[in-house]
Amino acid sequence: MGMTVGKSKGALAEMNVVPLIDILLVLLIIFMVINPNKPKGLDALVPQPAPPNTQPQQDIQNKLVVVQVLNNGQLKINQEDSSWDTLEARLTEIFKIRAERVAFIKGDDNVKFEQVARAIDIMHSANIDHVGLMTTKVEAGQ
Question: What is the pTM of this model?
Answer without folding.
Answer: 0.56
